[in-house]
Specification:
The chain is mostly beta strands. About 15% of the residues lie in helices and about 40% in strands. The chain folds into three domains: about 15-90, Roll (SH3 type barrels), CATH 2.30.30.40; about 95-150, SH3 type barrels (Roll), CATH 2.30.30; about 155-270, endopeptidase domain like (from Nostoc punctiforme) (endopeptidase fold (from Nostoc punctiforme)), CATH 3.90.1720.10. The protein has helices at about 155-160, 180-190, 200-205, 250-265, and strands at about 15, 25-30, 30-35, 40-45, 50-55, 60-65, 70-75, 80-85, 90, 95-100, 100-105, 115-120, 125, 130, 135, 140-145, 145-150, 175, 180, 210, 220-225, 225-230, 235-240, 245-250, 270. Strand 11 and strand 12 form a beta hairpin. Belongs to the peptidase C40 family.
C-alpha cells in the first residue's frame, strides 16, 4: 500500500506519474509554488492536524487549489499535505538561504528600521541586490552575515543540530521557533547536503547503514519507535524531546534508559551515514 505521506493523490486529483490513483481522481501536472509565510503547517487534511512544516521560500508542487486550500508536495522531502492557498506565491529561483538560527527581514537596510518578520534557519531567499551589510529581497532586507549562497552546505550535522539548542519542542515542527525529533534530524542533514525524509520511521528505513558493534560515533543516528536522535561528542546525544520540551543534550546511557523506562522501548536502530 502506498504511503499517503508521500503519495500525491486525493479523491479529486493525482500525480500523472502514479501507477494507481483513486477512483474518480483526475491526473494532473503540478505547478511549482513558493512558501510565502515564515512557517507554514503542512496539514493532513484541510483544517486537520499538522504533520510537518515548510518554510519561507521553500518550493512545493501544487496539485490542486480547492476552497482556499492547496494540496501540495514539498520538494525538500516529498511530504504531501494541505496548506492555505494564501500562504503560497509564485515560484522563484533561490539564491541564498538563512544559515543562522534565525534572522529578521527589515523594511530598510538599517538595523533600526522596523522588522517585517522573523525567518528561521533554512528559509530560502532570492537576493536582488546588496546595500552595505544587507541583502535586498522583494520582501525586505536581511543581514548578509546571516545568509549563505544557495549551494553552500555545512559539513557536520551535529553542529547544525546544536544551533537549535533550547528551541522549544513542537510536534511536527521544522523551524527554530519549534521543532520535533525528526524535524531536527532532517534539518541537520539537509543543511549538510544529505537527502532526508520527514518522519523518524521514514528516516530509519532509508538513512545510513546499520552499526553492529554498538560503538557510538558523533553523527550517528539513533532510533526508537517514534523517536530519533543524533550522537554528539562526549558520550551525549542531541535531540528534540518532549521530556525537556526542547532541543537538548543528554548523556547517552541515561537517555537510552529513560526512553526505555518511560514506555517507548529499546533502540530500534543505530545507523551511520
Amino acid at each position: 500500500m502506498s504511503d499517503p505521506r508521500s503519495t500525491p493523490a486525493n479523491l479529486r486529483v493525482a500525480a500523472r506519474h502514479l501507477a494507481e490513483i483513486p477512483d474518480g481522481a483526475v491526473r494532473v501536472t503540478p505547478r511549482p509554488r513558493r512558501v510565502a509565510k515564515p512557517v507554514c503547517d503542512l496539514l493532513r487534511r484541510p483544517n486537520g492536524p499538522r504533520d510537518r512544516q515548510v518554510l519561507w521560500g521553500e518550493t512545493v508542487d501544487e496539485y490542486e487549489s480547492h476552497d482556499g486550500w492547496s494540496f501540495v508536495q514539498a520538494r525538500k522531502d516529498g511530504y504531501v499535505g494541505y496548506v492555505p492557498t494564501a500562504d503560497l506565491g509564485p515560484d522563484a529561483r533561490t539564491t541564498h538561504w538563512v544559515a543562522r538560527p534565525a534572522t529578521h527581514l527589515y523594511e530598510a537596510p538599517d538595523i533600526k528600521s522596523p522588522d517585517r518578520t522573523t525567518l528561521s534557519f533554512g528559509s530560502r531567499l532570492t537576493v536582488l541586490d546588496e546595500t552595505g551589510a544587507f541583502a535586498e529581497t522583494a520582501d525586505g532586507f536581511v543581514p548578509k552575515v546571516h545568509l549563505w549562497p544557495a549551494d553552500r552546505r555545512f559539513s557536520d550535522p551535529v553542529a547544525v543540530a546544536e544551533l537549535f539548542l533550547g528551541t522549544p519542542y513542537l510536534w511536527g515542527g521544522n523551524s527554530r521557533f519549534g521543532i520535533d525529533c525528526s524535524g531536527l534530524v532532517q534539518t541537520a542533514l539537509i543543511a549538510c547536503g544529505e537527502a532526508c525524509p520527514g518522519d523518524s520511521d521514514q528516516q530509519q528505513a532509508v538513512l545510513g547503514r546499520d552499526v553492529a558493534d554498538g560503538r557510538m560515533e558523533p553523527g550517528d543516528l539513533l532510533f526508537w519507535k517514534g523517536h530519533c536522535a543524533l550522537v554528539a561528542e562526549n558520550s551525549r546525544l542531541i535531540h528534540a524531546n518532549a521530556f525537556h520540551m526542547a532541543v537538548s543534550h543528554e548523556a547517552l546511557p541515561a537517555a537510552i534508559e529513560r526512553i526505555r523506562s518511560q514506555g517507548d522501548g529499546p533502540l530500534t536502530a543505530h545507523k551511520r551515514l
